[in-house]
């Protein structure tokens, strides 16, 4: 019964989103739950939380059965407590699902009063109670879906908002002396009633118009499309292509693992989820080729994290960025193209050199079977519709996502009838496959509902206490007016705030706390957002949390710290690229200068790869040579801050070094013609 309930909730959540997209796209009358966008967001929040909880309850029942079986015959107190909790936990989760529906139903029934009149007439005690319940549900769902990191930040935000009130209570009771709060953290304090009001029941906070508004529309439609496409076999097709390419490339499946993770990472909003899904296939493939376990884990982790910056979706953060900046979506994805190209080209070069350096090449090669591409040719049609509607017609992401979903439905219906013939059985199997995809799309979106609500709460409370403005001022003050120092502080802060978070959540937090300080130093807004977004993404491979590396190392069965070391080595240029596009602003805002700046900065990033890997394609490099590559690379990437001639000289030195290595490889290959290629070749 619970399986059917989970299935139905997934279908309902997707149909709710598709219905709202249809109303907006075709200009239909906005009635019922679609009458106001805030009303739709409330229903989406309640149904999304309930969908996540019932799905979690299904898992909890399976855990309860396993725990009971493991603890049979156990007479210890610990075993009995474990069994008791495992049995009661599913009922608790079901209760939370009911609470989600009841609390949002209360908001829906009283919507007009809460949205229009209550801020003047006042809120009732029931309003405050429901607001508190919504805050607790958002934090709890986030904790269950993404662990304690974001949940702890949300709890900390609530406690911080109430900080001075708690201090006054301690003062009145003489329990502890009240410590004077430093200026950047000082605020007047909020009561629990104000927190419940501003955090939820005033149709704010967890209902934040940017986070939940964009999350329930633009983000949801793309996550649901990804789920539907997976149900129709897109993931299997990508992996089949990967295996075939792996058998026909000298470096094997390495680049395929990078590319597949890059594509899937662009759609999903979590580097950790991307590592878990694609890594479960790609990491064993890498290990089968002979690639060392720690390298296999790090390659997948870096590629999955970097996928979050890849247009057109950018791990769903592109939509959030466009709304926050008030610019067109096309402008955001244009700004993201070159930074993504710099990152992924450097990663591809790094893993290529690593494979050659350690001799992990494939020796039994076969020609690529191009007929395999025909088996997935039908997937090109909805992807073309997506790009055409987004980039050429410039529809909103919600409308573009709707047309893409409708297209993939139509394509799969035609394909199934063409393959199996027109008949009742084909119609039934196609209908079942379509419903499976609709349900899967809703279930993949459900975990993000809680984290979007929690991030809305965090942003509302931090802005309400004035902390965001205080941190921006503190960063400028610590930087002493020097842009490079402010950028380094912003980098460190972005990485720290992004640790363990999904990329959209990390981006929202750092852009609220860090970006204002950088913008005040004269850096353009879009460049600043790309800068902090880049480092929030890189937090997924940065110790001590490095959530993507942790998941990858667990799949590979290797040491977390060893995998972290290799991830930092492969992804090292990524920590420099954001500074390069601040120095070369034409990489973000395209102009005629971009034609020169992009290849120069690209050569600089490749030079950094050579230095960090310690191999140039021909031979291992000594530390003095690696240091010279670093110097030339920095000149190529940042020479425009001084003289363009310095930049050209640096790029020339990197190109000369790589050209020399290529000549050595070619000469050795000619000398050993007819012999089996060595690892260095």
From TrEMBL:
Domain TRAP C4-dicarboxylate transport system permease DctM subunit, first and last residues per copy: 135-589
Q: Which domain of life is it from?
A: Archaea
Transmembrane spans: 6-28, 88-109, 121-139, 146-172, 218-239, 313-332, 338-360, 372-394, 400-418, 438-459, 471-499, 506-523, 529-551, 563-583, 595-615, 652-669
Which UniProt keyword terms apply here? Membrane, Transmembrane, Transmembrane helix
**NCBIfam families for this protein:** TRAP_fused
PANTHER family from the UniProt entry: BLL3936 PROTEIN
Q: What is this protein called?
A: TRAP transporter, 4TM/12TM fusion protein
């Amino acid at each position: 019964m619970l399986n059917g309930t989970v299935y139905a909730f997934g279908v309902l959540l997707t149909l709710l989103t598709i219905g709202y997209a249809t109303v907006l796209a075709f200009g239909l009358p906005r009635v019922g739950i679609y009458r106001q966008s805030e009303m739709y967001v409330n229903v989406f929040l309640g149904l999304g939380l309930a969908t996540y909880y019932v799905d979690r309850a299904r898992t909890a029942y399976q855990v309860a059965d396993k725990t009971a079986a493991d603890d049979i015959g156990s007479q210890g107190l610990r075993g009995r407590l474990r069994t008791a909790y495992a049995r009661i936990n599913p009922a608790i989760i079901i209760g939370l699902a009911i609470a989600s529906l009841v609390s949002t139903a209360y908001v829906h029934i009283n919507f007009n009063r809460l949205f229009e009149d209550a801020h003047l007439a006042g809120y009732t005690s029931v309003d405050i109670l429901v607001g508190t319940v919504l805050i607790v549900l958002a934090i709890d769902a986030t904790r269950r879906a993404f662990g304690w990191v974001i949940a702890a930040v949300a709890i900390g935000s609530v406690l911080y908002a109430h900080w001075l009130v708690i201090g006054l209570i301690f003062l009145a009771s003489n329990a502890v002396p009240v410590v004077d709060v430093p200026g950047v953290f000082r605020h007047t304090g909020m009561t629990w009633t104000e927190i419940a009001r501003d955090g939820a029941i005033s149709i704010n906070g967890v209902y934040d118009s940017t986070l939940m508004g964009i999350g329930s529309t633009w983000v949801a439609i793309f996550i649901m499309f990804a789920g539907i496409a997976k149900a129709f076999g897109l993931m299997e097709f990508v992996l089949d292509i990967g295996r075939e390419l792996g058998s026909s490339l000298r470096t094997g499946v390495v680049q395929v693992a990078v590319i597949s993770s890059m594509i899937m990472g662009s759609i999903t909003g979590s580097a950790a989820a991307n590592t878990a899904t694609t890594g479960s296939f790609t990491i064993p493939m890498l290990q089968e080729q002979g690639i060392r376990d720690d390298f296999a884990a790090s390659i997948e982790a870096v590629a999955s994290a970097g996928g979050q910056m890849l247009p057109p979706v950018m791990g769903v953060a592109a939509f959030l960025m466009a709304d926050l900046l008030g610019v067109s979506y096309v402008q955001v994805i244009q700004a993201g193209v070159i930074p993504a190209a710099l990152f992924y080209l450097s990663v591809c070069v790094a893993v290529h050199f690593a494979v050659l350096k350690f001799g992990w090449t494939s020796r039994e090669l076969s020609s690529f079977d191009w007929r395999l591409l025909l088996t997935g040719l039908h997937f090109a049609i909805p992807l073309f519709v997506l790009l055409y509607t987004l980039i050429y017609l410039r529809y909103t992401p919600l409308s573009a996502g709707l047309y893409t979903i409708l297209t993939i439905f139509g394509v799969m219906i035609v394909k199934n009838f063409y393959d199996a013939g027109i008949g009742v059985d084909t119609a039934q199997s196609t209908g079942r496959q379509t419903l499976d995809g609709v349900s899967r799309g809703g279930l993949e979106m459900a975990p993000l509902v809680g984290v979007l609500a929690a991030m809305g709460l965090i942003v509302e409370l931090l802005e309400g206490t004035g902390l965001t403005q205080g941190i921006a001022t503190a960063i400028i003050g610590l930087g002493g007016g020097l842009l490079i120092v402010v950028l380094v502080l912003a980098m460190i802060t972005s990485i720290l705030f992004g640790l363990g978070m999904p990329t959209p959540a990390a981006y929202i937090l750092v852009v609220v706390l860090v970006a204002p300080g950088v913008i005040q130093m004269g850096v353009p807004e879009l460049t600043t957002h790309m800068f902090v977004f880049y480092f929030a993404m890189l937090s997924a491979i940065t110790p001590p949390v490095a959530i993507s590396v942790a998941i990858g190392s667990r799949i590979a069965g290797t040491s977390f710290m060893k995998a972290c070391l290799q991830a930092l080595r492969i992804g090292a240029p990524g920590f420099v690229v954001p500074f390069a596009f601040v120095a070369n602003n034409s990489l973000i805002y395209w102009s005629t200068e971009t034609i020169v700046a992009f290849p120069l900065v690209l050569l600089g990033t490749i030079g950094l790869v050579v230095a960090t890997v310690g191999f140039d394609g021909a031979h291992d490099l000594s530390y003095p040579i690696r240091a010279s590559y670093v110097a030339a690379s920095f000149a190529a990437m940042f020479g425009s801050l001084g003289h363009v001639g310095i930049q050209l000289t640096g790029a020339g030195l990197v190109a000369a070094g790589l050209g020399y290595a290529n000549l050595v490889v070619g000469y050795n290959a000619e000398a050993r013609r007819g012999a089996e290629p060595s690892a260095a070749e």
